[in-house]
Amino acid sequence: MRMKAATITLFIHKQPLHNMSSKRNRIVQLSAAEDLKKEMAGRILPWDLQSVLQIRQDIKNWVNASHAAQSDEPKTWMFQQLLTQVANDALLTSQRENRKQQLFTSSFVLKKGDTVDEEQTRLLKKSAIYRDVTKAILDSDDLWYSVVEFVKDKKNDLKCVVIPRSNIIPQTGTFYKNYMEETNPVKYRELPEFGKWILEFTGEPLGRLNKVVPHVLMKKFAQSCWSELCEIYGIPPRVMKTNTRDQAMLGRAKNMMQQMGAAAWFIIDNNESFEWAQSVTTKGEVYAELINLCNNEISMVISGAIIGQDTAHGNRSKDESAQEILWQLVQADMEKVEQQWNAVVIPALVSIGFLKEGLTFEFEQAEDVEQLYKFTTGLLPFKEVDNAWLEEKFGVKVQPKAKPDANDKNLTADFFV
């Protein structure tokens, strides 16, 4: 299958950095300095002229791609295309999104000193820049690296575009217009736009998803074999014996088999015989166990525990412990996001005039409301608690208790004790 590859147009400094074309699936522009214009002018090969093979991946492809990505003359496009296919796994997608969304649902603020800058915080929350840049930071852990470019659209709104990873060699800081031919390299870290309009985030070599590649490939293999078994076991092939030397009889047999349904069929001669192999008696337990093992390994890598999958042996305490482990990983992600925003992103956004100077990015500390509620209810018999604080923390409208009526005849004898 032929797929279209990324197209990147190089422009000189001060020209638009990026322009999304409606006529192409994707066009990415990377600006170059004036002195590089003569060397690198022109377009990258369009999508339909770059051949990208979509083949059945196996462990050998993974080993070859990872070796090529880490060789003395690294080539990353094969490895990145493999990761793209692996990332389509349903469970892996669910686990990654679960981890990301816990971070995105956490509130953040921009501070100037110890004071929250409400105006700048609202500006960043309304912009798509926050989610796009933060996603690129998180993906750098999964996919090894992310190179992004800030661009302005026709409405002069700032956008963030991820440069295709297949065109990037992170070890040398090189961008290729055509990642297969590797012509006209650009040292993007030497461009004047780097650190302002072009930012880079890196994770561990080969990325976290490299650890789940064999499990996803084996899972796909088991699913493929199981589906073939289902076809054979559920609707066994039909066999007809006839005189295959007689073309008329062979034709009638062929028409008959075709009209009897869509199940697999074959015709053999009267003198031939067909027997089932012993392996077809299985119902696929071996495939189910292999798929379950692969799912568990994927969950351990991404979430640190098996969450909500083992329904046969799972229980509430196990799932709660797994959620606590996942939350610890999310907090680690928050720490990295804070570091990258303060060290890389905010200085860039200040230099291009999107944010004001002197700001720091910080996630707001999440309170354990359940524990706070237990502490508060235990405190109520002994201390006065402010009603406004209770409404703010728990969202419950509260009022002072009405004083008992001394004339009430229903008062018990020990009321005033």
Description:
By secondary structure, the protein is an alpha+beta fold. Helix content is 41%, strand content 14%. It has helices at residues 37-40, 59-69, 77-86, 90-104, 118-126, 129-143, 213-234, 247-259, 285-303, 316-351, 369-379, 387-394, and strands at residues 7-12, 27-32, 108-112, 115-116, 145-152, 158-162, 168-169, 174-175, 186-187, 198-202, 238-242, 265-269, 360-363.
Could you give the topology of this structure?
Blueprint: E1 7-12, E2 27-32, H1 37-40, H2 59-69, H3 77-86, H4 90-104, E3 108-112, E4 115-116, H5 118-126, H6 129-143, E5 145-152, E6 158-162, E7 168-169, E8 174-175, E9 186-187, E10 198-202, H7 213-234, E11 238-242, H8 247-259, E12 265-269, H9 285-303, H10 316-351, E13 360-363, H11 369-379, H12 387-394
Parallel strand pairs: 1-2, 11-12
Antiparallel strand pairs: 3-4, 3-13, 5-6, 5-10, 7-8, 8-9
Helix pairs in contact: 2-3, 4-9, 4-10, 6-10, 7-9
Summarize, please.
The chain is an alpha+beta fold and 417 residues long.
